[in-house]
Amino acid sequence: DLRSPTNSILSFLDIMTHDGDSMTPQERRSIYERMERAGRHMLNLIADLLEMVQIESGKYSLKTEPLALSSLCKEVLQNMQGSFKAKDIHTSFHVGLGELRVNMDRQKGIQILTNILSNALKFTPRGGRVDLGLDVQGKIMVLEVKDSGPGIPDDELQKVFDRFAKLSTKATEG
């Protein structure tokens, strides 16, 4: 994953080195902005790797607090509405039993929900749907994401939680 933003930056630097003098200020600004986005993406990936090392070494601590999980789900879903609308993907959110409160790290909760919904967005075809549900079954809270994407082939389900696993399912366009 670090190669993609690095290659982008190097490609943009090559363009600027060879063609920068003949570009308009707007074209140069556009390339600089794309380089900055690629650099920020790389920083985020590095931060994730460093965080994983902390977790594995047992030196990572969560900042837990009581949170209303349904409110957090709504917030993340609302923050992503622009991306869903861009692919004409319809979303819904259903809460089975009122407001559910859990002790969790707010930022990690947002990160987890964003990752899950980003995967649904990535693999759901244009015009499809993504449904988010939250419920309690006995003493277990269930967060469920259903989408109209192709799904994961049965023979690859065991790989879902393997570190750095790549599955055969292809992202949809858009």
Task: Give structural notes.
This protein is of the alpha+beta class and 174 residues long. Helix content is 49%, strand content 19%. The longest helix has 33 residues. The two termini are 20 Å apart.
Labels describing this entry:
globular; three-stranded mixed β-sheet; 5 helices
Layout of helices and strands:
Elements: H1 3-19, H2 25-57, E1 64-68, H3 69-79, H4 81-86, E2 90-95, E3 101-105, H5 106-123, E4 129-137, E5 140-147
Parallel strand pairs: 2-4
Antiparallel strand pairs: 1-3, 4-5
Helix pairs in contact: 1-2, 3-5
Number of helical elements? 5
Q: What pattern of helices and strands is seen along the backbone?
A: HHEHHEEHEE
Mean pLDDT: 87
What distance separates the N and C termini?
20 Å
- What is the radius of gyration? 20 Å
Structural class comes to: alpha+beta
Catalogue the unreliable spans.
none
Question: In this structure, how is the largest beta sheet organized?
Answer: 3 strands, mixed
Number of β-strand runs: 5
Share of residues in helices: 40-55%
Strand order of the largest sheet: 2-4-5
Shape: globular
**Strand percentage:** 15-25%
